[in-house]
Design a protein that fits this description.
Blueprint (H helix, E strand, L loop, with lengths): L9 E10 L4 E8 L6 E10 L4 E8 L4 E10 L5 E10 L4 E10 L5 E10 L4 E10 L9
Parallel strand pairs: 1-3, 2-4, 3-5, 4-6, 5-7, 6-8, 7-9
């Protein structure tokens, strides 16, 4: 409910993380939005040398969940782990898109997804590992 008493129908997030050399970031997010709310999230992460990032998403609420993640591993020995868990029921929709772009040498990325759907709920997942020129000895 907004401050005017009107029902909220849409929530949009745009997050950008610029993790400097040697930095460590852990972000945990739990989506408990009401079942009538559309949820849109765009997240961009840039990792410099030896940066270490872990994201943990638990997606339970919302009617239509559109999640777009772009992780840019430009630094040497940068590390990104993204865990997503979802539980869909009724008519819920989950549209998940993730890109791991490896530009730095010896960079590492890992994507974990775990979920269950019931009723008429639907999920689509598109994951891309992009190893750019210079990303020697990188893993994903």
């Amino acid at each position: 409910i907004t401050g005017t008493g009107e029902a909220l129908t849409n929530v949009s997030y745009l997050n950008e993380y610029d993790v400097k050399e040697g930095g460590k970031v852990v972000v945990k997010k739990v989506n408990l939005l009401p079942e009538h709310v559309q949820h849109i999230e765009h997240r961009y992460t840039k990792l410099e040398d030896k940066a270490d990032v872990e994201y943990i998403n638990i997606e339970l609420g919302g009617s239509e969940n559109i999640l777009n993640y772009y992780h840019d591993l430009v630094g040497q020995e940068s590390r990104m782990v993204h865990d997503i868990a979802y539980l869909g029921n009724k008519e819920q929709k989950f549209d998940i898109s993730m890109v791991m772009s490896h530009g730095g040498k010896k960079s590492f990325s890992d994507i974990h997804t775990l979920g269950a759907l019931s009723g008429n709920s639907k999920k689509s997942f598109r994951g891309t590992l992009d190893f750019l020129n210079g990303a020697t000895a990188s893993e994903g």
